[in-house]
Design a protein that fits this description.
Largest sheet: 6 strands, mixed
Distance between the termini: 70 Å
Order of helices and strands: EEEHEEHEHHHEHEHEEHEHEEHEH
Radius of gyration: 23 Å
Oligomer: single chain
Shape: elongated
Number of helices: 11
Length: 338
């Protein structure tokens, strides 16, 4: 008798050819252009891209805040289009603007959230106390929320998002505006939630955030996924190192330097990023003195030079021809500042 195979776990989030259009006058603009995603239970999934790439639109469709125009989406095994109310019961959502009741204390916010999801007063108070302890809110939980710092408020908003123990927590740019210390603190709280079994779907445009937190990432640009995988595997696709060269202004045109350096035998690719030439090389330590020799012989003075391993920004640059780090609020490329 053939042994039965164990069933595969239901994906926490899955989409097939997800699409969304908006009207801009008479023009129909496609904001999300056929996104396919699979997020496994218990992982932190980073949805990475510049502002205007379609990240927030995708997240709002998955959380039932925007209707889906085409394609399919399932969250916690539930069809988003057919059973939106059931999806809302199974998810937590922390948007960019938050949802804190500022005149109430943090504890009051949490108890109210619990009651909205059907918990009794006692159950809501016990769950609130549990979250105040686990997310380290005790130092300010009984102050009114309008007195909170940005980091304190974001931690409370995460607590509100998981008050009802959702299967999936959606976070839209959760650390925007936080200082480095508060950002690092929130990262630790999110890792703890993942360790307790919560699936986290995280949109961000911070490269270091996706690299530090996410088990897997999808990089989205112009409404479509251009790369997907673990941060480590995505960076491994760019074998070797990256040498960043910034010539001093006033010399020969940077485009000529780019073409000259691209012709070196150890350079696999040379890209121009603002006033910086990024050289993808097999071995940075060996390549650097040879790059210096070529530039010195050409009489080129440098403002800076650096060697680093490939980053997620290098992956994005390779896939799209522009840097994620240097895109403006509308997704347009900015000139690299000196």
């Amino acid at each position: 008798m053939k042994a039965s195979q164990p069933e595969s776990p239901v994906a926490a989030v899955s989409t097939t050819q997800l699409r969304k259009w908006f009207r801009n006058g008479r023009e129909k603009v496609e904001a999300v252009s056929g996104i396919d995603l699979t997020v496994q239970p218990g992982e932190i999934f980073g949805f990475l891209g510049p502002n205007g790439a379609g990240k927030t639109t995708t997240l709002r469709m998955l959380t039932t805040l925007l209707p889906i125009d085409a394609g399919e989406a399932f969250v916690a095994g539930v069809d988003v289009r057919r059973e939106p109310q059931e999806v809302r019961r199974r998810i937590g959502y922390v948007g960019q603007l938050g949802g804190t009741d500022l005149p109430a204390t943090g504890r009051e916010n949490l108890v109210l959230q619990g009651s909205l999801y059907g918990a009794s007063r006692g159950e809501a108070e016990r769950r609130a106390a549990e979250l105040i302890d686990s997310l380290e809110l005790s130092g300010f939980a009984d102050r009114v929320a309008r007195t909170y710092s940005g980091g304190q408020r974001r931690r409370l908003e995460v607590a509100l998002g998981i008050m009802h123990r959702p299967d999936v927590l959606f976070l839209d740019e959760p650390t925007t505006g936080l200082d480095p210390q508060n950002r690092a603190n929130l990262w630790e709280q999110l890792r703890a939630l993942r360790g307790a079994g919560t699936t986290i779907f995280l949109t961000t445009h911070y490269l270091e955030e996706a690299d530090a937190l996410a088990d897997r990432v999808a990089i989205v640009d112009h409404g479509t996924v251009v790369a997907e995988g673990t941060p480590q595997n995505l960076k491994k696709r760019l074998a070797g190192d990256v040498v960043s060269v910034r010539p001093r202004s006033g010399g020969q045109p940077i485009e000529i330097l780019q073409r000259d350096l691209a012709g070196l035998p150890f350079v696999t690719e040379a890209r121009l990023e603002g006033e910086t030439i990024r050289l993808y090389v097999t071995d940075g330590a060996q390549a650097l003195p040879l790059v210096f020799d070529r530039l010195r012989n050409a009489g080129v003075l440098l403002d800076s030079v650096a060697v680093a391993e490939p980053s997620l920004d290098d992956v994005f640059l390779q896939q799209t021809g522009r840097s994620l780090r240097d895109t403006g609020p509308d997704g347009a490329t900015k000139k690299v500042a000196a």
